[in-house]
Amino acid sequence: MIATAGWRLPRLALSSRSGWWLLLISLVALPALAGGRDQLTIGISQYPSTLHPAIDEMVAKNYVLALARRPFTAYDSNWTLICLLCTALPSFDQGTAVEEPAPGGGTGLAVTYTIRPGATWGDGVPVSTDDVVFTYQAGRDPRSGFTAHELFQRDIAGITVKDARTFTVHLTRRTCEYQSLGGFDLLPAHLERPIFEADPAAYPNRTLYQTNPGNPGLWSGPYRIVSVDTGSNLVLEPNPHWWGTPPAFGRIVVRAIENSAALEAALLAGDIDLIPGEIGLPLDQALALEKRQGGRFDILYKAGLFFEHLDVNLEQPALADQRVRRALLAALDRETLSRELFGGRQPVADSLVSPLDRMFDPDGPRTRFDPAAANRLLDEAGWTGRSGGIRTNPAGEKLSLSLATTAGNRSRELVEQVLQAQWRQVGVEVRIENQPARVLFGQTLRERRFPGLAMFAWISAPENIPRSILHSTMIPGAANGFSGQNYPGLSNPELDRVLDDLEVVCEPKANRALWSRLQYLYGTLLPSLPLYYRADATVKPKWLSGLVPTGHLDPSSLWVEQWTVAP
Fold first, then answer.
1. Rounded Cα distance, 506 and 517, in Å
2. Which of 63, 199, 422, 455 is most open to solvent, judged by the fewest CB atoms within 10 Å of its CB?
3. Which of 418, 319, 323 is nearest to 373 (CA)?
4. Which H or E run includes 238?
5. What count of other Cβ atoms lies within 10 Å of the Cβ of residue 468?
6. Which residues neighbour 362 within 8 Å (Cβ) at sequence distance 6 or greater?
7. Do 181 and 163 fall into the same domain?
8. Residue-number span of the structural domain to which 444 is assigned
9. Which of 239, 281, 249, 252 minimizes the C-alpha distance to 264?
10. What is the mean pLDDT of residues 90-94?
11. Which residues are within 8 A (CB) of 430 and not within 5 positions of it... i.e. 6 or more apart?
């Protein structure tokens, strides 16, 4: 391939007396030839479950779509909120954020955005407020299956259009995050509106993002998707209607290789050029690769807001008992696991809030490795009998749980084996039932079909309120089109109140107190079992420059137009 074959100097028929001239030509030709790479091949460890921007949350999807779309707002690599599709963030000083009466009483906000001049879809149709209105209308309909349904249904009271590029979002409350339009994933109304209006309930399966992803009008970024081989790869080419800095590559191929050993082998064979940290090699594998092949690649390590954990299905009878969940966590020697598998680079997690986030509470609940406490809690929960070394209850039922993660991820599969062995020591049987990532995220989690435990990572933006994964209204189900990410099914009135208050109580001292209470409730209720805060490793070719890992929800690929070929 062009991107991996390197470059060669032209063979010149010159005499030895012309050696100086050959050297001069070489020096002139070198940058041009080095900059002549036209294709970049990216290897990722998962294939997106869908390409629709507003349906399903999956890191693989976010990474790929960031090459071909631009959101209104995003956090950059300095963890600062910036405009991408808009011209400026709303501001009270500038009069683009003002208080107003809320429809249900109280105080709301009117925040005004202007779409960046020249912004167009890939078919040349301007990005406009018509797209904003349609996205809002579709998002409010529970049949649409939008993950951020609550944003449209609860948080936004309406949209007022000033002109083709300027619009005002009317918020139902005076929120602390009023400047961000995170979750408002803009859709092209001229293409998607007829499909949605024809049958809103069937829309998730009939959208062009599913049936014709190569349609250029779906894309608004520096690249557009031109072809898709579902489950395998996607091909992107420059968007001729892109309004920003022209991208460097004439073609980007994204290959999904869901086995991490095969992903590394493809890199070493030159079949792929780049493995992004967001969705690539596990840290332990990257560390080993650096020891063996570090001279061939640049490896960029980035600690960030990656929370590896085990979601717990609270409808499973044994796991519904808080004592069992506490016992499972106390039975895990996570310190040793982190040290032995990851060289101590992935610290043990005690909360879903990372220590890198300024809202982390160092005094929150902690669960340390304590097998005696784990055994005591399981006894208290009634699992006192034994059958073949496995605990049983008075009815003779075994304490046997299923555990699923993304199949082919060598690191996670190794972690599973460690967890399985440690839980066996306290009499808990674990059955490993892994699935391809697109199945686990596309159906199993979204529809809450996992019967026991599911291991994966949440990636968040800085100071992100985890409402979508903890609030009782965010439990996915048929009634809400399986929107929301509260996969465990947690419902706790106090936690709901804290999450609600976090959005509107902005005074620093009171806000921090709410964050502390949130972390206390999470550490006590344990709707998921925290494992470790993840550090990721981007493995890139030495000739690629401009790539900067962000360490949070908004991936490095959002700035792909800044990637260049270094001489």
1. 15
2. 199
3. 323
4. strand 233-238
5. 23
6. 355
7. yes
8. 304-535
9. 281
10. 95
11. 400, 401, 402, 403, 419, 420, 423, 424, 453
Among 335, 259, 309, which Cα is nearest to 469's? 309
Token pair for 332 = 């895990």
Query: According to the model, what pLDDT value does residue 567 have?
Result: 77
Would you say residue 34 lies in a domain? no
Angle at 447 between CA 443 and CA 452, to 5 degrees: 95
Tell me which amino acid residue 301 is: Y
Regarding whether 455 and 384 lie in a shared domain, the answer is yes
How many Cα neighbours within 13 Å face the side chain of 384?
6
Tell me the Ramachandran region of residue 77: left when phi exceeds 0, alpha when psi lies from -120 to 50, beta otherwise. alpha
> What does 320-331 look like in DSSP terms, one character per residue?
TSHHHHHHHHHT
Report whether 142 contacts 479 (CB < 8 A): yes
Give 437-490 pLDDT, tens digit per residue: 889 987 899 899 999 999 999 988 888 899 999 999 999 998 887 888 999 999
Rounded Cα–Cα distance for residues 112 and 167 (Å): 6
The alpha carbon of 25 is separated from its chain's Cα centroid by a whole number of angstroms, namely 47
The 10s digit of each residue's pLDDT in 20-39 is 322 332 333 333 333 468 99
Q: Cβ contacts of residue 75 below 8 Å, gap of 6+?
A: 81, 82, 461, 462, 550, 552, 553, 554
Indicate whether 246 and 395 sit together in one domain. no
Largest CA distance in the chain: 95
Q: Would you mind telling me the total number of residues written for the chain in this entry?
A: 567
Residue at 416: amino acid letter = E
**What pLDDT, on a 0 to 100 scale, did the predictor assign at position 36?**
60
> What proportion of the chain, given as a percentage, has pLDDT over 70?
94
Residues 520 and 544 in one domain: no
Identify whether 62 is part of a domain.
no
The pLDDT-based confidence of 284 (bands split at 50, 70, 90) is confident
pLDDT of 393 > 70? The answer is yes
Neighbouring residues of 51: CB distance < 8 A, sequence distance ≥ 6: 61, 64, 65, 209, 210, 213, 225, 228
Q: Are 382 and 407 in the same domain?
A: yes
177 Cβ contact partners less than 8 Å away, ≥ 6 residues apart: 465, 503
Does 327 score more than 60 pLDDT?
Answer: yes
Are the C-beta atoms of residues 241 and 124 closer than 8 Å to each other? yes
Q: pLDDT-derived band of residue 57, with 50, 70 and 90 as boundaries? A: confident
CA distance 106 to 99: 10
Residue 71 near residue 82 (C-beta atoms within 8 A): no
Indicate whether 20 belongs to any domain: no
In angstroms, the CA 238 to CA 228 distance is 16
